[in-house]
Amino acid sequence: MQPTALSSEQIASVLKALPDPAFLLTRSGRYAAIFGGADVRYYDEIGFLAGKTMSGLLVPAKAEWFLAEIHKALATRSLHVVEYGLDSEDILEMEGKQPLKASWFEGRVQALDFQVDGEDAVLWVASNITARHQLEAQLRLHSESDELSGLYNRRKLMGTMAEHYQVFLRYRTPTALLIFDIDHFKNINDQFGHLFGDKAIRAAADVCRDELRSTDFPARLGGDEFVVLMPHTSCEQAAPIAERLRLRVAEALLRLGAIGGGGTISGGLSEFLPGDSHAEDALKRADDALYRAKRAGRNRIVSV
């Protein structure tokens, strides 16, 4: 049986009915033609883009990114697949249009074997993958987070430490490590119960979130032990941060009410050193310093 011959009107109707939008884009970033985008759950009206240029619609950094991907597809002549995000901050002119919700897309980009208005061109098919991206982010966060404290877990901590150690090896960027735990935590559990012990752990975690810098990386190592990775920070620079944390955690534990004289923490502070073989060397020194703080009477930070 011969394939059905479609009229130009029928072909146009088929292209219009495509659920995902398809963009005919030239090498210079001009929207030569727009097809599809019929799935109104994910796409707003996009026909107005035809004839416009990316440099006229998008902020420079985003426009340059799209142009680079177009050029990659043209250079390889094979299917080029990318994932990217878009939101209102990426758009130059939003007047008269609804703000664009942050969305994620998979772009499938294929070079065409003919020119459009004298330019090489690609077909860029965009699929909205926001729901998938959000689910992946949630799963990733779940796998990297400690359920009780809400901080990062041990596995994420060790991976991040290893990454920063590699940066240190290359650039000698100072990186400090603080390890601390709650003094007499076993006695707190025994006297007030494990539920209260959990409250104490969450209180310490809340202080970490409130008091540490956005560049710091707090994690729960296990039990009542916490580690704070402080990039671009020497041991000397980290000392006042650790001391402030010690005072604030003590205040938070006192507010819990049940601990008679309040609770305290002890900590050990170290940093990556040129002679280290791996990131765990600095963590071991910090752990040794923690035990020195315990032997010295607790409720203090010891640096090594």
Helix content class? 40-55%
CATH superfamily of the largest domain: Reverse transcriptase/Diguanylate cyclase domain
CATH architecture of the largest domain: 2-Layer Sandwich
Query: What's the number of domains?
Result: 2
How far the N terminus sits from the C terminus, by CA atoms, comes to 83 Å
In the CATH hierarchy, what is the class of the largest domain? Alpha Beta
Instruction: Name the helix and strand elements from N-terminus to C-terminus, one letter apiece.
Output: HEEHHEEEHHEHHEEHEHE
Low-confidence residue ranges: none
DSSP helix count? 9
Strand content: 15-25%
Structural class: alpha+beta
By DSSP, the count of extended strands is: 10
Task: Give an overview in words.
The longest helix has 21 residues, at 235-255. A hairpin with a 4-residue loop joins β1 and β2. The chain has nine helices and ten strands. It has 304 residues and is an alpha+beta fold. 42% of the residues lie in helices and 22% in strands. The protein has two domains: 8-136, 2-Layer Sandwich (Beta-Lactamase), CATH 3.30.450; 145-303, 2-Layer Sandwich (Alpha-Beta Plaits). It is elongated and about 85 Å long. The chain has helices at 8-16, 54-57, 60-76, 130-144, 154-171, 185-192, 194-211, 235-255, 279-295; strands spanning 21-26, 31-36, 80-86, 103-111, 121-128, 175-182, 217-222, 225-231, 265-271, 301-303. It has a five-stranded antiparallel sheet with strand order 2-1-5-4-3. Strands 7-8-6-9-10 form a five-stranded mixed sheet, sandwiched between helices.
